[in-house]
Amino acid sequence: MLRVRATRDRKLSYGDGRTVNLGGRALGPSPISVSYHPVASLQETLMGKYGEEAKLIYELQDQGGELLALRYDLTVPFARYLAMNKITNMKRYHIAKVYRRDNPATTRGRYREFYQCDFDIAGQFDPMIPDAECLKIVHEILSDLQLGDFLIKVNDRRILNGIFAVCGIPESKFVTACCTVDKLDKVPWEEVRGEMVGEKGLSPEAADHIGEYVQLHGGLELIERLLQDPKLSQNKLAKEGLGDMKLLFEYLTLFGITGKISFDLSLARGLDYYTGVIFEAVLLQQENEHVEEPVSVGSVAGGGRYDGLVGMFDPKGRKVPCVGVSIGIERIFSILEQRMKASGEKVRTTETQVLVATPHKHLLAARLKLISELWAAGIKAEMLYKKDPKLLKQLQYCEDTGIPLAAIVGEQELTDGVVKLRDVATRVEVDIPREKLVDEIRRRLEP
Amino acid sequence: MLRVRATRDRKLSYGDGRTVNLGGRALGPSPISVSYHPVASLQETLMGKYGEEAKLIYELQDQGGELLALRYDLTVPFARYLAMNKITNMKRYHIAKVYRRDNPATTRGRYREFYQCDFDIAGQFDPMIPDAECLKIVHEILSDLQLGDFLIKVNDRRILNGIFAVCGIPESKFVTACCTVDKLDKVPWEEVRGEMVGEKGLSPEAADHIGEYVQLHGGLELIERLLQDPKLSQNKLAKEGLGDMKLLFEYLTLFGITGKISFDLSLARGLDYYTGVIFEAVLLQQENEHVEEPVSVGSVAGGGRYDGLVGMFDPKGRKVPCVGVSIGIERIFSILEQRMKASGEKVRTTETQVLVATPHKHLLAARLKLISELWAAGIKAEMLYKKDPKLLKQLQYCEDTGIPLAAIVGEQELTDGVVKLRDVATRVEVDIPREKLVDEIRRRLEP
């Protein structure tokens, strides 16, 4: 379950200062949330705080003349890591921040500093088995998060390059043609054609020919049809790509997920490093009356095969084939946030199960003792940091923050060896013998 | 449970490239590990990988003339966050990377880029209640991790300043005297005295007088004694600090943790921003014959009260009192790593519960179908990415990576509607009806 508290600080230039509660990562038994902060800040922010240690502050302008840059994604660092460590075989996920010198658009979940979740499989394996697993994982994540209807578009760089070749485009223009085709999900074909002929200098005939192909999408039957295409079937790259695409669809059928997969020839993806299968998951327009205005978030996951990237970092150019996927977690968060805001659903920002409370003065010691017992039993307990808080204030705090139980000790309870356990929602209070309190709390908290 | 795989890359200048397996954060049902990578790299590393998107790469040398620096700790960013968002009350933890332009010493767990775990309580509360909770959390973490015997030293900046004052040190020299006193955990008093008199220009009498105080350590009885001290008791700051220290020890007694707490007047901590209680946890020399050479790691946690820091970032100087603690997770990791290496304990780097295997050729489809079923049931399953792997190779993989079960499907099993479930350790194989497989696996995996 992803839980988000929307306390944004739009004033920070680097990052957005949101507070995110990641369940199950509490350091201790107290319920505490994670807040995250930009990794880079103005130098002056750090000045005058660290005493003699200040000499260790990592200034970025001048590190012995090295030109530094912040990581742009998690794929290139992964490839470099494999090459530097001579690792030829690895499956891993990685959740970390990346940096883009972009114009932030917080409502659309676009920031200068943001988290990505990547999953990659590196190694020489039989064709399309790891690729199919990547798609299976994307399918699973998007289904589990209940983000609404989605579609995973799949294509292959070799098929695209084959199309460009049979349409008479010179190889030197493949990359730029790719970038233009990639715009087809945002603008109509006429505009893309215009850019091809105008800016990119392709002939109108070649552009029209490309247009016949890249507007196609479908499933296995389209793959079969293109394998029979008199021109494409003569192109080695296209044939390889289509053969692998067929294999991929067979595996996806066995995984039972072809219903949400579309072989889409307009998918190109902008990055240089893809060499084979590419894919991108998009959310489909929602028919949810609770959401006032439909959230436009574009793609929420994307990836593909990059068989050449590790070799670029290896001194001897040794290649390690890789396939991977990146989940746009910030975009997914902003969808979930807006949806919760629209539905008025209240989200708890702590996991506290019990508030340890006292009904009158001079009972701080009793609270400290009781909370220790609960913490020792692994119960998430909290108390107000006041010597003599009013009972009403303590109960109000439970209601405000959604704490389900209050364990109340007064003089009478101490004398009787009991604790008054209050159900915050129903306001029913029952005296529980102190030695049975932990068990009773556990019983109450059972789902 | 912290699990560490020691695959270090000592060649990376920025960070150490270790692979760390964080339990329970798998994106999908496949067992995958987290690897982490430096956030900054040479600009050239990122060149030629991103196509037209490359314009968004975050170069650090020149961002419109702003001088940037990487965060040095998580305390200053937290204080800034509170001020910018006008938050007066917050309890949170934060696990993230910080940066020091230091000489890395990987065996001692000291890096240029490393993780810190911070826990802070901000807000105006009754004295020493949040401070006591911070110490309770440190006590709990160090106990739970079973790092061996430890001691949490506690002192108060006000007591130190009071000592300096009654010893005749001018206020302008408090900070520098503090830094010198802080070295007492590494060098003997004679040396510290030498620095005070030589470099810092204190009189020998003042230094000797300071020495009488800062070599003291103890518990409640020492606090009581100092409260009666004819000079200290006349100093307002020292009296306040000692009064709060007494209160702190009362609360720590109720928490039952005073056995590992020492009121230590030599503890000074170098950072400027502390204003009250300060503390530091150190591991005590281990008497463990399995560890060949004792690990020298210094302190593993530290923190204190910083009531002025938020005000430094607030335009109107509004103060928010804060107390917090920082856990030296990298140091703790390096202790755990060395200990495991010394004991020969093998650490699993994946959480895979079942390997889906086939005994002969042409059964990839059967594996893909079966693994889908296990994933759907939430079982952590894996298979080799080969079309026709040899059975021996699959079983060897289980033994190498510690996978406890293998689910084997061959033609015979498919015909009979069963799966052969193999216990990897005992090599016992039993045919399980397919519809009962998930339940049987769950039963076998029960602790």
UniProtKB/TrEMBL annotation, chains A, B:
Enzyme Commission (EC) number? 6.1.1.21
Q: What positions does the entry give for L-histidine binding?
A: D73, L74, T75, R100, Q116, D120, R269, Y273, Y274
Which superkingdom is the protein from?
Eukaryota
Q: Name one GO cellular component term.
A: mitochondrion
Give the reaction(s) catalysed.
tRNA(His) + L-histidine + ATP = L-histidyl-tRNA(His) + AMP + diphosphate + H(+)
Arranged from A to Z, the UniProt key words for this protein are: Aminoacyl-tRNA synthetase, ATP-binding, Ligase, Nucleotide-binding, Protein biosynthesis
**Does Nucleotide-binding show up as a keyword for this record?**
yes
Specify the enzyme's EC class, one word.
ligase
Question: Which biological process, per GO, is one annotated for this protein?
Answer: histidyl-tRNA aminoacylation
UniProt cross-references to Gene3D superfamilies, sorted A to Z: Anticodon-binding domain (3.40.50.800), Bira Bifunctional Protein, Domain 2 (3.30.930.10)
Q: What GO terms are given for molecular function?
A: ATP binding; histidine-tRNA ligase activity; identical protein binding; RNA binding
All copies of the Aminoacyl-transfer RNA synthetases class-II family profile domain together span 93-359
Q: PROSITE patterns per the record? A: AA_TRNA_LIGASE_II
Q: What's this protein's family per the entry? A: Belongs to the class-II aminoacyl-tRNA synthetase family.
Q: What is this protein called?
A: histidine--tRNA ligase
Organism encoding this protein: Amazona collaria (yellow-billed parrot)
Q: What is the lineage of its organism?
A: Eukaryota, Metazoa, Chordata, Craniata, Vertebrata
